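Hi U.,

Before I forget, here's the chain from the pilot set. I'm dumping it here mostly so it's searchable later in email.
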Amino acid sequence: MTKKRFQIALSFAGEHRDYVEQVANHLAKTLGEDAVFYDNWYTHELARPNLDSYLQNIYHQDSDLIVPFICADYERKDWCGLEWRAIRDLIKQRKDEDIMPMRFDNTHIAGLFGIDGYLDVSKRTAEDTASIILKRLALNNHAVKKN
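Structure:
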């Protein structure tokens, strides 16, 4: 099995950046920043033509666990839509264990149904959310590396 570049990739709308950044920081305390794809940590790498394809590869091929933070803003955002396409293809390939949906609200998003499990983060602390993500990563038989 080939080792993927990131253990966790976070997908989110900018309106929730503060919360997701806190989650990313908590994850990095355990895994290290290099194991977590959080866009602000990779601005030097993301300043490029064809960023759409580059991001889709990060979510589709280069990450063990993809964590989309769903909300009304996520549904409307172009970049989130590109990331969600890569995530939907993983669902099509039945790689459900590689996706861990989070929700700030009950917005309908194509490809995610009422029968799909998710974590409601609207009343959770970022630290609690990060802890649950790490438990899922461990459950997926991925070793949680200490910094």
